[in-house]
Write a structure and sequence with these properties.
13 strands, alpha/beta
Length: about 325
């Protein structure tokens, strides 16, 4: 079954600051902040939410169909997608534009400061779900151009295609009324704990109240696991333990790929949540959003080690 993944493609320049941001940002001077971080380590990776989700879903054996607008500099990324056997027919090149560019600085506490140039993302609304030839079983609206996110959520809804609304880094673009409309249209909503707090502040809806409007509201809690709110119940999903912590970039996208896989295969929230949790743990063990790999047998072994039960992908 195909999963249509609407969102961004980007080149990620990831820099590591060998200290803690809190040691250099004075709380009483944030109105006039002027800091510079020496970052002797830097890597350039393939990223973007749609690209990361598609990569991880493919690892799990899913069939991702990414839909995104990219720039004329996309060729190296396209070659990578070909190597990974990821479908490209809904990737559109926008003339005179860059592919999205993320400049991410991570400190020793795994905090991140990101600057993002959207580039071709601003044209994502020119891509329509109505133009997709394949039968779509499930979709996701992940961070993208504002107009594109609004349009694609509406099109999923109008075509009765179940989808996850994942505002992520795009959350600042939307006010309370926007978010309420997304929640009314979506089948599921996913956010991290910080984003969930912003959603509550802007909509006035608690997690339980959001869950009244959707089939489930998934909130990730980092090393504390995740909570999955459904009507009148909350599943508490434990975190999978990574063998080491290398880089948090793209962990949320790996988690969402796990959600898509579990939902596509009707595995139930207990299993789906654990698959997503393990995907995040595997990703954090590796630098960059798309540099990790595993076989189905390796994943099943890690799953049993972490959760004491078996799974077959």
């Amino acid at each position: 079954m195909s999963a249509l993944i609407c969102g961004s493609y980007a080149f990620d320049s990831i820099m590591v600051f060998n200290d803690q941001f809190k040691n250099h940002i004075l709380p009483d001077k944030t109105h006039m902040i002027n800091v510079s971080f020496l970052v002797p380590e830097m890597r350039r990776n393939f990223g973007g939410c749609a690209g990361n989700i598609a990569y991880n879903l493919k690892l799990l054996g899913g069939n991702p169909l990414p839909m995104a607008s990219v720039g004329t500099d996309f060729t190296p990324y396209r070659d990578w997608m070909t190597k990974c056997a990821i479908e490209q027919k809904y990737i559109r090149v926008i003339d005179n534009s860059f592919t999205g560019q993320a400049f991410i600085t991570t400190d020793m506490d795994d905090n991140q400061i990101t600057a993002f140039h959207p580039g071709a993302m601003s044209f994502s609304h020119e891509l329509s779900i109505n133009d997709v030839d394949e039968k779509i079983a499930i979709g996701i609206v992940s961070p993208d151009g504002r107009d594109g996110m609004i349009q694609h959520a509406r099109e999923f809804y109008e075509n009765n295609i179940p989808f996850i609304f994942d505002p992520g880094q795009g959350l600042p673009m939307f006010d309370g009324s926007d978010l309420k409309r997304f929640i009314e249209q979506a089948t599921w909503v996913a956010a991290n704990d910080y984003e969930a707090q912003l959603i509550q502040e802007r909509t006035g809806l608690s997690p339980h109240e959001v869950a009244e409007h959707v089939d489930a509201y998934i909130i990730t809690l980092g090393a504390k696991g995740s909570h999955i709110y459904v009507k009148e119940h909350r599943y508490e999903i434990p975190a999978a333990k990574p063998t080491e912590i290398s880089d948090p970039t793209g962990c949320g996208d790996a988690f969402r790929a796990g959600l898509l896989y579990g939902l596509s295969n009707n595995l139930g929230w207990e299993v789906t949540g654990r698959i997503a949790s393990l995907m995040g743990a595997i990703k954090i063990e590796n630098h960059g959003p798309q540099n990790h790999q595993f076989t189905k047998e390796e994943f099943a072994k890690r799953y049993e080690e972490n959760f004491g039960s078996t799974i077959s992908l």
